[in-house]
Amino acid sequence: MTKRILVIDDEDGVKEIIQICLESTTNWEVLTASSGRDGIKVAQSEYPDAILLDVMMPYMDGPTTFKQLQAIPGVSDIPTILVTAKAQSYEQQEFLDLGVAGIITKPFLPENLVIDICKILNWNDVDCINEN
């Protein structure tokens, strides 16, 4: 069964890079949203297998969006990975303390993105390779 990943990021370029990386190297379907509010709506209607959530967004940042996702039955079970430029260990620990599945630090290497997601989510190799 095809994995579905929701990418929530206000930067179109970042969303596009992530989408291209994931779709070109896996069989995953990538859903996108440009804000926390839109991401919550997509998560509620589509129930993706995982969420990649940018930390720094206007209006509603990643941690606030994550807390709201956690308050929604069914959606709260979706593993969420924060994507952030905040690389200090104390900053990352604060994010992990929220209950996210993991953190991917920007800038990330596109060729390592799928590997990093699969490691964080403990997905097996079959889910993480493109068989086309």
From TrEMBL:
Any Pfam family matching the protein: Response_reg
SMART domains for this protein: REC
Keywords of this entry: Phosphoprotein
In-chain residues carrying the UniProt-annotated modification 4-aspartylphosphate: 54
UniProt xrefs under PROSITE patterns: RESPONSE_REGULATORY
Keyword hit for Thylakoid: no
Parts forming coiled coils: none
Keyword Translocase: no
Family matches, as CDD domains: REC_RR468-like
InterPro entries reported in the protein's UniProt record: Bact_response_regulator, CheY-like_superfamily, Sig_transdc_resp-reg_receiver
Domain Response regulatory, first and last residues per copy: 4-121
PANTHER family: CHEY SUBFAMILY, STRESS RESPONSE REGULATOR PROTEIN 1
Name of this protein: Response regulator
Protein's organism: Nostoc paludosum FACHB-159
